[in-house]
Structures are given as structure tokens and as C-alpha cells.
Design brief:
The protein is of the alpha/beta class. The chain has 14 helices and 24 strands. Bound molecules: NADP nicotinamide-adenine-dinucleotide phosphate. Pfam families: Aldedh.
């Protein structure tokens, strides 16, 4: 965000993407491929393998064999940690290639990726590499009988299928893969069909770092068939999922027959509350970037803005001015603040929400239209609706795009009531100079993350996840290891 302009990297045609199974790159068993499209140019970047059900079977079998072989699952923790540190270093070394892939595939500004996403991703491998050194330790416990002891031991779950969404594809893969590998699991990763390009480069990094063959497998293809096959497979122990609430619910249902472990990182409709005593310059910046960073394709976007009445008109005016001045453009251009939406399907969906807002009682104060840059691209203007109520469709649904309804309120009680009046509970923000009030309200808002006088802060150490329909389980932080391990109690008679 807000970087000094530097040189503009050039697009390049990438080699077609294959599947990684048992340490070898190969085509889909029937040779099928699908194009992945650059939303800025609307041209095909490259073809990517479309895995068959037979490929899913091979990938799971490979992960299972590798798990049972023990070259990873029983490897000494320090050796595992060293390899994870090597993954981190290789990610940093290849950062520009990853940034190019994410900019071309997802429309994320290249500089944002280098400044924010890549340090987070390599940081995840460093954190979990460190945790691998001791987090699997157990305990030696007394019982009622003086001659018996319980030895507790933490073990990996087995085969983890990681199913990831189209937004922040690398970060949301690393947040699963780093703890899963640290704990000794083996993995089959299925990235989103729209943005598979960084997954291919990550799989190569993992191979190059020395993770044994079969421990990490990558299959690309459609969620409804390929993803579903992983969810139902009896040899998969856990589904680590990030995506929409509707697909998450499906996965829980379909995984129930084989009693899958699941973590669910799902949708959000996060309230950002600005009180009249806030530092207005900072609060308006937090509100602007809270919704418009990565063109609103962020699960924790501040997608409902609640503003206290005494400052309401001023905040609306300032946000509209910022939105109207935002620089839309090629994500590779260092001057760009907002790129295109990631795919035509997302573009069409968000457009419908913009129309729904226009037809509602809310007042359009900025944006509201699509844009072409150099005659092409899936751009939607940063769009602000003032005088919204929390009952409107644009205030209730997760739009997942650059659309912000602003809702006025009076006082703490009304702010908390509106903030919590949503099925979701992923994130929230409180902008005020009164820290006591901020901490009191943070306790009362049902959300997995609460930002005070800021937005979009992340660190590998901070547990991340949802309340309510935004999911369960935590990624990042030492807490994440809980959902990739299980405890065993070994009873010993020492008489
Ligand atoms: P999505 O449509 O739910 O897809 C997510 C993943 O699930 C994709 O890989 C998809 O494959 C796969 N999938 C689809 N149907 C499946 C099925 N029946 N069985 C197994 N897998 C299936 O989500 P998205 O549109 O990519 O991502 C946006 C959503 O993710 C938003 O709701 C956003 O809030 C949420 N999100 C949450 C977080 C968080 O941390 N809480 C972070 C980022 C995003 P295909 O791509 O092939 O369809």
C-alpha cells in the first residue's frame, strides 16, 4: 500500500501447470487442462492440468504411503524444522516470481504482495519450523495408583487435504501447510480453479527444500468433483478449508461419513465502528483500506462501516473523496492502488450487488460503475453507499468486492447491537481515542479478530479465525498446531 513508484515488472507466459504426485510432476491422467485467465488483460496466462478422480486417488495414496513410511511423520523435529526454514528462505528468494503470479492471476498489486504477503508467508514457515522443535512434546502424569503413569504424546493426524480459495491463494495455503508439515502430516493441496499459479510455485519450493517425495502433493481442478473426492476419501484424515460458508457447510456434511477433522475459515461481513472521538484522518484511512485493499476480495474486509452521528457527514464526504481519487490499474504498475476483480464470475456477482445498492434506499456517493483500463480488464470502481441500514442486502450479504455501505449510529449500545447483527463473526474494528471503551466493546463483539484504531494487521503469531457462521478452528499462532495433532495417552505400570 502507498509505495513509492519503482520499475514495472513485465508479464510473461508461464509454462503450463502440472500435478505434483509422489514427488513427480505429471499431466492429468486424461491429459485435460483448463486455462487460467489474467483479469487485467482478460487473456489466458497459461493452461493448468485438470485432475481426474483417478489423479485424486493417486495423490491421496501417495500422501498416505508417505505418512506411513515415516520419513516425514517420524523425522526428528529438528530435521523437520530445518527443512521448514529452508522453505521460508526459498520463498523469500523467489518472492518476485510469486508476486508476478499473484498479480497476473488474482489482480493483486505486485508491491502489496512483496511488502505484506510474502513476509507473512515465509514468516509462517519460520514460526512453525520453530514450534516443530517442541510443540509435539508430551507429558508424564501421575494417576490414582502410585505404580501407574500416563505418558501423553502428540501425534500428527495423517493425511491433510488443504482446499483453498481464490483470494490470497499463497497466504491461505501457507497458513495450512506450515503447521500441518510442522506436526508431521502429509498433504494433498487443491487450490481454487481461478488462481492456481502460486500453488504450483509453492509445490516446487517444497520439493526443492528437501521435503521427501509424496509428503506434499498438488492437484488442480474443480472443487465440485476433485475437491469433493478429497472430502469423501476414507484415507484423508482432515480437511483444512478456507472458502465460502456454503461450500464449508457442504464439506462438513460430506466429510461426516468418514468423520473428518475439519477447520473452517469462512465468509465475513465485518463491522468497522468509527466513534466521534476518533482520530478522523487515521479512522478514514482504516475504513478506506479496510474495505478496498485487494479490491475488497478479502474475507476480513471492513464491509460494513458504522459511523457515530456527530461525524457522520464528514466521514461520508471524506470516504467518497478518497474512493473517487483511488488509482485503478494494472496490478504490476507500482502506482496502482486497486487491480481488477479476480475473475469474470466475481465481477458479475459484485456488479449485481452494486445494482442492488443503487435500487435500495441507500445513497450512492462514490463509484457505482465498471471500468476498463486501456480498453480491457474486470475493474469495478470503489463504491460507497451512504445512509444504509443494516437490513439492506448490501449490508447483510458478503459481497466480496469494493462495495461499502455506511450506517449511522448513536452511542455504544447501538454500535454493538448493529455490529453483532450478522450471521458472520470474522473481524471487527473500533476506531476511538477512548481505549477503555475500545477494550470494553472488543469483549462484546462476536468476532475472531478485533482491530483497535487500525485494520488489516496480520502476523504469523496471531491466531486467526471466525465466530458464528465465519467458521471454527484457528490458523496462525501456536494454537494452529492443535488442529493438526492428536493426543495419545500411554498407560504404564511401573510396579
Ligand atoms: P469457494 O467457492 O467456497 O471455494 C473455495 C475452495 O473450495 C475452492 O478451491 C473450490 O474449488 C473448492 N470447492 C468448491 N466446491 C467444493 C466442494 N463441493 N467440495 C470441496 N471443495 C469445493 O470460495 P472462493 O469463492 O474461492 O473464496 C471466497 C470465499 O472464501 C469468501 O466467502 C471468503 O470470505 C472466504 N474466505 C475466508 C477466509 C477466512 O480466513 N475466513 C479467507 C479468505 C477467503 P473451485 O475453485 O474449483 O470451485
Amino acid at each position: 500500500m502507498n509505495q513509492e513508484p519503482t520499475r514495472m515488472p513485465q508479464r510473461k507466459r508461464l509454462a503450463s501447470g502440472q500435478l505434483l504426485i509422489d514427488g513427480k510432476w505429471r499431466n492429468a491422467s486424461d491429459g485435460a487442462t483448463v486455462p487460467t485467465v489474467d483479469p487485467t488483460t482478460e487473456e489466458t496466462i497459461t493452461e493448468v492440468a485438470k485432475a481426474t478422480l483417478e489423479d485424486a486417488e493417486s495423490a491421496v495414496a501417495s500422501a498416505r504411503r508417505a505418512f506411513e513410511a515415516g520419513d516425514w511423520s517420524r523425522l526428528h523435529h529438528e530435521a523437520r524444522a530445518k527443512i521448514l526454514f529452508r522453505v521460508a528462505d526459498l520463498l523469500d528468494e523467489r518472492a518476485e516470481d510469486f508476486a508476478l503470479r499473484e498479480a497476473m492471476d488474482m489482480g493483486m498489486p505486485y508491491r502489496d504482495f512483496l511488502d505484506v504477503i510474502m513476509p507473512h508467508c515465509s514468516g509462517l514457515f519460520r514460526l512453525f519450523g520453530g514450534l516443530a522443535m517442541h510443540a509435539m512434546d508430551g507429558a508424564y502424569r501421575a494417576t490414582y495408583e502410585p505404580h501407574t503413569r500416563i505418558l501423553t504424546r502428540r501425534e500428527p493426524l495423517g493425511v491433510v487435504a488443504a482446499i483453498t480459495p481464490f483470494n490470497f491463494p499463497l497466504a491461505l495455503t501457507c497458513s495450512k501447510v506450515a503447521p500441518a508439515l510442522a506436526a508431521g502430516n502429509t498433504i494433498v493441496h487443491k487450490p481454487a480453479s481461478d488462481t492456481p499459479l502460486t500453488a504450483l510455485a509453492l509445490a516446487q519450493v517444497i520439493l526443492d527444500a528437501g521435503v521427501p517425495d509424496g509428503v506434499y502433493n498438488l492437484v488442480t481442478g474443480p472443487g465440485g468433483t476433485l475437491g469433493d473426492a478429497l472430502v469423501r476419501h476414507p484415507l484423508v484424515d482432515k480437511i483444512a478449508f478456507t472458502g465460502s460458508t456454503a461450500v464449508g457447510q457442504n464439506i462438513i456434511r460430506n466429510g461426516a461419513a468418514t468423520l473428518k477433522h475439519t477447520t473452517m475459515e469462512l465468509g465475513g461481513k465485518s463491522p468497522n465502528i468509527i466513534f466521534a472521538d476518533a482520530d478522523l484522518d487515521a479512522a478514514v484511512q482504516a475504513a478506506f483500506w479496510g474495505i478496498f485493499w485487494n479490491k475488497g476480495e478479502v474475507c476480513v474486509a471492513g464491509s460494513r462501516l458504522l459511523v457515530e452521528r456527530p461525524i457522520y457527514d464528514e466521514v461520508v464526504e471524506r470516504l467518497a473523496a478518497l474512493a473517487n481519487a483511488a488509482v485503478l490499474g494494472d496490478p504490476l504498475d507500482p502506482r496502482t492502488q486497486m487491480g481488477p476483480l479476480a475473475s469474470k464470475a466475481e465481477f458479475d456477482k459484485v456488479r449485481q450487488y452494486v445494482e442492488s445498492g443503487k435500487a435500495s434506499s441507500a445513497r450512492l456517493v462514490a463509484g457505482g460503475d465498471v471500468r476498463k483500463i486501456d480498453g480491457r480488464g474486470l475493474f469495478i470502481e470503489p463504491t460507497v453507499f451512504a445512509d444504509a441500514t443494516n437490513e439492506l442486502k448490501i449490508s447483510r450479504d458478503e459481497i466480496f468486492g469494493p462495495v461499502l455501505p455506511i450506517i449511522p449510529f448513536d452511542g455504544d449500545e447501538e454500535a454493538v447491537r448493529i455490529a453483532n447483527d450478522t450471521p458472520y463473526g470474522l473481524a471487527a474494528g473500533i476506531q476511538t481515542r477512548d481505549l477503555s471503551r475500545a477494550l470494553r466493546l472488543a469483549d462484546r463483539i462476536a468476532a475472531g479478530t478485533v482491530w483497535i484504531n487500525t485494520w488489516h494487521k496480520y502476523h504469523p503469531n496471531g491466531p486467526f479465525g471466525g465466530y458464528k457462521m465465519s467458521g471454527y478452528g484457528r490458523e496462525q499462532g501456536a494454537e494452529a498446531l492443535e488442529s493438526y495433532t492428536q493426543y495419545k495417552s500411554i498407560w504404564a505400570n511401573i510396579a
